[in-house]
Design brief:
The protein has 189 residues and is mostly helical. It is 77% helix and 0% strand. The protein is built from six helices and no strands.
Amino acid sequence: MPRPARLDELSPEARAELDRQIVARNFKDYAVLVEWIREQGWFLTDEEPGISVIHRHGAKLKRRLEAVKASTQAARMIAEAAPDDADLRSAAVISMVQSELFELLLNLQEADAEDDPATRVELMAKAARGVADLSRASVSQKKWKTEVEARIRAEERAGAEQAAAAAATKAGVSAEGIAAIRAAIAARM
């Protein structure tokens, strides 16, 4: 088994600070970063990572950041091109993943090839966690959809009440009549 990268030994806080330094230096000046790491005292002197280790880490970080940026931009473009206030795309994705996970669970149940009970239990536990996560996501998505639909209905009702009140006022209907019209609209919507 290969020795873990020296940077893997850093605490999450130290790694986050290193990542900030790499980004702040625009993925350059790795020799300066090696000196900066030495000043931090994170490693024993003979174990300090060299320029190549920092450069590889910086290249991975840059690829991850570019991937996040690209997916964020794609999501923004999709949202602008096809607004989805009710979050129907998420519901579709959740449904697809649930179907696939269900199929995998069935295959796991039918599989006789897995003789090791501990491995089988581990696989079932992972699948159960996946089902639980999907269920939570599904409930959250449905709650969001219900809230959006309620907000849309409230906006439509308010618009209808306003339009009716304006027309009634223009036609000379009394304030009591307008209140009755508003109440009738609210009762129907």
